[in-house]
């Protein structure tokens, strides 16, 4: 019998071979209610995961035994005593579980581009230090031959990020691009929604956020349709505006395929190859294709590998010694309690859909948490719970390493935070706001601008020695109102953005 976890739903998890199940191997999937009791997940995320699992069970038919149980152990016990195989799970907790079960044999991971031993050898070759994403990205592209002209990168440059930092078009509410793929719900979605309603009513589980019509693929067919629509209709405009934000266009030209990838409905190689084929056919510009491939073959793969390479203790990193608890309005996704328009808008997007693209995550949500000194472990858990594409392997490196700089620079070269000027330049979020991005103090002091300088001031001893932050740290002593910024931010005590 071969066990499929709920994020191993694509056909590539069933490909026969020396390290996979044969074509006639009976299959098992366990829906464990305890998963939803452990964390207060976003309702849309719970819906998507259960819908995807139940759709896959319906597709596999009699070959699969679908067990609904309280825990994974209980579900496995119902299947008898015979041997079970499973591909390497995607979290330390799940790996500890399957390794503790004597009847279970763990096979190598699937759904990623680089075998874990190969990455470990590459990383060890760098002394385990200086493991920057850019060098890894070059290695992966070269090894697979993606966007390559011989042994050189197509177009002569590995990274076209310089061409992909355009602010949104002036006076535009939305990008002039086709909308992303939208699936149609069916009777399985109705059943899932009924079950979630009942579990909440019975007090068995509690969720945050809203569960509107499903926005994300729950089947392989839907995922392939979403990929096709992105490549054919949206990829061309992805590059220039991948870092831009518009209040009324939360998706912009992003693929919105991360949830399908992380459920295992798509394989990253097929996403990369479809994008590259569009460029080679002259249907998408190189800067857009390179930017997208860098997200999938570079960043996503890098995060997966670092999660395992750094070890389970990495999640407890807290080099900045941030310990403040998350406020209730943040935990409850109470966007209506927030005055700062950028934060209110993005928090509402999370509340309503369980998704935003990477810049709101990093430069609005993550930046605010970093400036306020919130506990990075709690911030990581929040991102895990509240995003439809959030899994332990995704959020530990992304939040601990990049967003909260809690590892002190093992993963990135600087803290990713900014004042309101960046938000104003890259979005339309600041105009109607009660705060002014240029004000550090006073009634209209932007919480991001004041928060940025207060953050640098608190950590100036550490950041003065970082070549990427040394200059802004030196500017602290040129701020005539620095003492007032300190008093103001202490007095506001993390309530800078809320009513």
Description:
The termini are far apart. 45% of the residues lie in helices and 5% in strands. It contains 21 helices and 7 strands. It is globular and about 75 Å long. The strands form 2 sheets. A 5-stranded parallel β-sheet has the order 3-2-1-4-5. A hairpin with a 2-residue loop joins strand 6 and strand 7 (152-153). With 499 residues, the chain is mainly α.
Topology:
Elements: E1 2-3, E2 27-32, H1 34-38, H2 43-60, E3 64-69, H3 72-77, E4 84-87, H4 92-99, E5 104-107, H5 116-125, H6 133-144, E6 148-149, E7 152-153, H7 187-201, H8 220-233, H9 258-262, H10 268-280, H11 286-310, H12 328-331, H13 341-353, H14 358-372, H15 376-386, H16 392-403, H17 420-425, H18 447-458, H19 460-463, H20 470-475, H21 482-492
Helix pairs in contact: 2-7, 6-11, 8-10, 10-11, 11-16, 13-14, 14-18, 15-16, 18-21
The topology string of helices and strands comes to EEHHEHEHEHHEEHHHHHHHHHHHHHHH
| Portion in beta strands | 5-15%
Report the biggest beta sheet as strand number plus sense, adding barrel if it closes.
5 strands, parallel
Radius of gyration using CA atoms only: 23 Å
Main features:
499 residues, mainly alpha, 5-stranded parallel beta sheet, two-stranded antiparallel ribbon, 21 helices, 5% strand
Question: Briefly, what is this?
Answer:
With 499 residues, the chain is mainly alpha-helical. It contains 21 helices and 7 strands.
């Amino acid at each position: 019998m071969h066990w499929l976890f709920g994020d191993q739903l694509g056909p590539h998890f069933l490909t026969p071979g020396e390290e996979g199940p044969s074509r006639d191997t009976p299959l098992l999937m366990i829906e464990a209610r305890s998963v939803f009791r452990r964390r207060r997940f976003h309702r849309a995320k719970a819906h998507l995961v259960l819908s995807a699992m139940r759709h896959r069970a319906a597709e596999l038919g009699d070959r699969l035994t679908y067990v609904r149980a309280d825990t994974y152990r209980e579900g496995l016990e119902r299947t008898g005593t015979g041997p079970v195989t499973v591909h390497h799970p995607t979290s330390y907790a799940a790996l500890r579980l399957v390794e503790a079960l004597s009847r279970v044999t763990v096979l190598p991971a699937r759904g990623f581009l680089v075998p874990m031993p190969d990455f470990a050898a590459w990383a060890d070759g760098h002394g385990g230090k200086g493991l920057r994403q850019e060098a890894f990205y070059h290695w992966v592209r070269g090894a697979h031959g993606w966007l390559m002209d011989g042994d050189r990168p197509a177009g002569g440059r590995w990274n076209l990020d310089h061409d992909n930092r355009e602010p949104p078009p002036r006076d535009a509410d939305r990008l002039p691009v086709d909308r992303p793929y939208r699936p149609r719900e069916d009777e399985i979605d109705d059943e899932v929604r009924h079950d979630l309603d009942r579990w909440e009513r019975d007090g068995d589980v509690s969720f945050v956020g809203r569960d509107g019509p499903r926005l994300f693929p729950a089947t392989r067919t839907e995922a392939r349709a979403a990929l096709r629509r992105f490549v054919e209709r949206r990829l061309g405009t992805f590059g220039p505006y991948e870092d831009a934000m518009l209040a009324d266009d939360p998706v912009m030209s992003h693929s919105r395929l991360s949830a399908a990838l992380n459920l295992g409905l798509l394989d990253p190689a097929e996403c990369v190859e479809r994008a590259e084929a569009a460029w080679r056919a002259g249907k998408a510009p190189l800067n857009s294709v390179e930017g997208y491939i860098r997200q999938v073959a570079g960043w996503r793969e890098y995060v997966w590998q670092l999660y395992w390479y750094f070890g389970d203790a990495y999640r407890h990193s807290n080099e900045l010694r941030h310990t403040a608890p998350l406020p209730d309005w943040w935990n409850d996704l109470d966007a209506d309690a927030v005055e700062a328009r950028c934060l209110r808008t993005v928090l509402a997007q999370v509340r309503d859909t369980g998704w935003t693209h990477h810049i709101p995550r990093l430069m609005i949500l993550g930046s605010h948490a970093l400036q306020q000194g919130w506990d990075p472990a709690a911030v990581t858990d929040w991102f895990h719970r509240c995003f439809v594409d959030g899994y332990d392997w995704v959020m530990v490196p992304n939040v601990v390493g990049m967003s909260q700089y809690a590892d002190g620079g093992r993963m990135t070269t600087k803290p990713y935070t900014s004042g309101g000027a960046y938000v104003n330049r890259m979005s339309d979020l600041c105009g109607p706001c009660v705060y002014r991005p240029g004000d550090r103090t006073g009634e209209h002091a932007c919480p991001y601008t004041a928060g940025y300088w207060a953050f640098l001031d608190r950590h100036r001893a550490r950041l003065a020695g970082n070549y990427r932050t040394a200059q802004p740290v030196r500017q602290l002593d040129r701020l005539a109102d620095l003492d007032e910024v300190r008093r103001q931010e202490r007095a506001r005590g993390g309530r800078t953005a809320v009513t």
